[in-house]
């Protein structure tokens, strides 16, 4: 194998012209003969027994060349990539330039990791919200805790909106039961909207032991089997229950936490809310900063990197849908979208993610950042604690090189965030509006601002005095 040329072309691609000599190609031709001889019929010889020279005499010397090229190309290409130290990011486009008994020559055009020029990544500005936790926020969290610790108690009255009715039901279409239309001892919160529209409203007013038929027409966008159909549900109410919420007092605090008083529980809630909001504000601050860094890089990004990222995004979405029990094909029908359109829509966010990844990698390189084994282990330990798993189990599912990359990314983000200036969101919006106005003025779109009326009056007075 010999690399005749290695040239850079647009979109961060490299064109490799590779030649394979006579000896190497002859070995490939012989392998092709051994592989193909059983499929070639030669009069006077049993299948697979005809000598190579006889076959070549009958069908031409080139009879094995195509298969020989297929045999020799992968190894020659990999050797050429290694020799030129190329960081390839996709599959090559191959063009055969010549083949004969003396060997073959082919050109492989392959996308490579692009050269990245960083823009400004230190000393940036971004809005950062001031974190405040009010008494109403604490009370809202307390009410959530109380709601989670509530219980349902039976009442002897007609069901109201907000109550929970325990029901048996069965649906009939044209007098015939349909699949999925039957349930027993089902707790239905009236007003939750969890059943088909119109169903819950007709259960309101029913008492325990009461039965009745409910007429329902399914929406047009429901499952194809029932969309737009008029059906009848036979419903029996077994029990009517109301939610009993515990009182917010010291006893409640003891039941739901490690604190003895409601005052101490409130203090802990305020502390945790403050931590949560500080974390969220810092994350939002960092997101804006990193978007600026990603927008500021210069890189001739190959299409292969964007396509691969888009494909990964699509696959991740398919997995999310599957986890929710929704086949991807069903989702496409529900949204009236084709898979090709869905993939096309993923291109823009994929490009954004690729730019972000390139920016972070460039900062790691520029700052000579490193991740020690201890830091990788600490990150794995954090994951283990977060999900309640032992460290050895985490190590089975997380690859050390992926965790190392994550540690480096976080270090790169800290480099940007630690050198940045946080401004109030209002100031950031005012600055943005000012820049927009200035840009319009430069383009001749913005008219000069009129003088205030008071200044006009003063100017007229001065003119009269003169």
**Total E-strand runs:** 13
CATH topology of the domain at 2-113: Alpha-Beta Plaits
Order of helices and strands: EEHHHEEEEHEEEHEEHHEHHHHHHHEHH
- Please name the CATH architecture of the domain at 2-113: 2-Layer Sandwich
The CA-CA distance between the termini, in Å, is 94 Å
- What structural class should be given to the helix and strand makeup? alpha+beta
Rg measurement, Å = 36 Å
Describe what you observe in this structure.
The chain has 466 residues and is an alpha+beta fold. Among the domains are: 2-113, Alpha-Beta Plaits; 151-244, Roll (Chitinase A, domain 3); 424-465, no CATH class. It has 16 helices and 13 strands. It has helices spanning 22-36, 52-59, 65-83, 135-148, 199-203, 250-256, 262-296, 303-323, 328-334, 339-345, 347-366, 373-387, 391-397, 400-418, 425-442, 453-465, and strands spanning 2-9, 13-20, 93-100, 103-111, 116-117, 125-127, 151-154, 164-173, 176-189, 211-217, 230-244, 298-299, 421-423. Strands 7, 8, 9, 10 and 11 form a five-stranded antiparallel beta sheet that branches. Strand 8 and strand 9 (176-189) form a beta hairpin. The radius of gyration is 36 Å and the shape is extended. Mean pLDDT is 90; it is low at 446-466.
């Amino acid at each position: 194998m010999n690399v005749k040329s290695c040239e850079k072309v647009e979109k961060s691609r490299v064109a490799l012209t590779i030649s394979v000599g006579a000896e190497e190609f002859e070995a490939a031709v012989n392998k092709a003969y051994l592989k193909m001889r059983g499929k070639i019929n030669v009069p006077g010889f049993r299948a697979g027994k005809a000598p190579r020279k006889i076959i070549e005499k009958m069908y031409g010397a080139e009879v094995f060349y195509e298969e020989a090229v297929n045999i020799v190309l992968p190894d020659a290409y990999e050797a050429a990539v290694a020799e030129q130290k190329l960081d390839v990011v996709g599959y090559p486009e191959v063009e055969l330039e010549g083949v004969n008994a003396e060997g073959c020559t082919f050109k492989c055009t392959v996308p490579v990791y692009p050269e990245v020029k960083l823009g400004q990544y230190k000393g940036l500005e971004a809005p950062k919200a001031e974190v405040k936790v009010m008494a109403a926020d604490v009370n809202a969290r307390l009410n959530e805790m109380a709601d989670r610790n509530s219980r349902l108690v039976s009442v002897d009255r007609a069901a109201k909106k907000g109550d929970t009715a325990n029901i048996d039901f069965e649906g009939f279409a044209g007098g015939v039961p349909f699949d999925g239309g039957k349930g027993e001892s089902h707790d239905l919160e009236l007003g939750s909207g969890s059943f088909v529209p119109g169903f819950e409203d007709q259960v309101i007013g029913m008492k325990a032991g009461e039965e009745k038929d409910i007429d329902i027409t399914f929406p047009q966008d429901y499952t194809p089997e029932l969309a737009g159909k008029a059906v009848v549900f036979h419903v029996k109410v077994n029990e009517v229950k109301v939610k009993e919420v515990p009182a917010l007092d010291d006893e409640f605090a003891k039941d739901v936490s490690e604190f003895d008083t409601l005052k101490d529980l409130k203090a802990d809630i305020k502390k945790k809310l403050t931590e949560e909001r500080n974390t969220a504000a810092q994350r939002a601050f960092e997101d804006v900063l990193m978007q600026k860094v990603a927008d500021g890089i210069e890189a001739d990004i190959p299409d292969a990197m964007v396509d691969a990222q888009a494909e990964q995004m699509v696959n991740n979405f398919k997995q999310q849908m599957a986890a929710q029990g929704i086949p991807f094909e069903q989702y496409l029908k529900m949204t009236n979208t084709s898979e090709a359109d869905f993939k096309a829509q993923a291109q823009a966010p994929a490009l954004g993610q690729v730019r972000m990844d390139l920016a972070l990698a460039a900062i790691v390189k520029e700052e000579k950042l490193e991740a020690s084994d201890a830091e990788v282990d600490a990150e794995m330990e954090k994951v283990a604690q977060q999900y309640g798993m032992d460290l050895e189990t985490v190590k089975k599912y997380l690859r050390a090189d992926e965790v190392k990359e994550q540690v480096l990314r976080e270090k790169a983000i800290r480099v940007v965030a630690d050198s940045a200036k946080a401004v109030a969101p209002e100031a950031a919006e005012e600055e943005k509006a000012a820049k927009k106005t200035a840009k319009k003025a430069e383009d001749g779109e913005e008219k000069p601002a009129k003088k205030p009326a008071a200044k006009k009056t003063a100017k007229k007075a001065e003119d009269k005095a003169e």
